[in-house]
Amino acid sequence: MNAEKADMHLIYKTVNGNDRARSRFHNLEVYRTMQEPREDGDGEESQTTPTPWKPNEEFLKVLVGMGISRVAAEKALFYTDNRSADLAAAWLFENSEADLETSLAAEAGDNMEDTFGDAYKMAFVVNMSLEMGTGKLASQVAHAAIGMHRLLLQNENKYGEMVLQWSEYGETKIVLRGNTTQHLVELERKALCLGLPTYLVQDAGRTQVPVGSTTVLCVMGRLDLVDQVTGSLKLL
Questions:
Q1: What tens digit of pLDDT does each residue of 82-104 get?
Q2: What confidence score (pLDDT) does residue 228 get?
Q3: In what helix (H) or strand (E) does residue 220 lie, and over which residues does it extend?
Q4: DSSP 3-state assignment of 1?
């Protein structure tokens, strides 16, 4: 399979993956209905008493502090399995046209984890010691995203499933504050030890920064693994 066909194959699988994700979200409504307690004499031999789903209060506080309504924040946390405020915020951004203000009467069951599968994200760590301007910083993050995308396509057999899972759940991306070049190098080393793909941008030095400057580190992988690398960093 040549590169062009491989790209189209991946795009095709991703589009269908998005359809599957929407179907899963719809099916959760059916699932919650099925888990409602039944009245005696309804023909069922046993009754189910579900555990009411509750949002993570810490994540909820962060989202509300960002100006997001409580209803929308709760819905985002439900659809991202209460994993993190970052993931919930990304879900809201990717689903901005959805009905976010209708109250979510949700219940979590034993198969919630199976429904959502593993969540993935792409994290960008910026070298703040370089004091790049907004435009320069944005271009460097873009370089990192393109570089990571190429790396993933070149290793589709290894990373293809990860890309599909990432695409299904909103293609989460976050930009974080790194300290220095050495800090980014240390983070990359830690990510590689965890088996995560990384891409480190070294600028050509045409504007603002010296040639060869390490500007941005991109790390991608399962949410819990990426958080082991970047979880202590602040959002940019």
A1: 889 999 889 888 887 666 776 65
A2: 94
A3: strand 214-222
A4: coil
Distance CA 212, CA 201 (A): 9
Two tokens at 163? Answer: 């890309």
How remote is the C-alpha of 14 from its chain's centroid?
A: 15
Considering Cα of 190, then 191, then 192, then 195, what sign does the dihedral take?
A: positive
Rg (Cα) of the chain, in Å, rounded? 21
Angle value at C-alpha 87, between 165 and 20, nearest 5 degrees: 35
State the greatest distance between any 2 C-alpha atoms of the chain, in Å, as a whole number.
77
Predicted TM-score (pTM) of this structure:
0.56
DSSP 110-171: TTHHHHH---EEEEEEEEGGG---HHHHHHHHHHHHHHHHHHHHHTHHHHHHHHHHHHHTT-
Check: CB of residue 218 under 8 Å from CB of residue 204.
no
Give the whole-angstrom CA distance, residue 25 versus residue 148. Answer: 29
Cβ neighbours for 109, distance < 8 A, ≥ 6 positions apart? 31, 35, 50
SS3 for 104?
A: coil
CA distances from 137 to 14, 201, 229, 232 (A): 29, 11, 21, 21
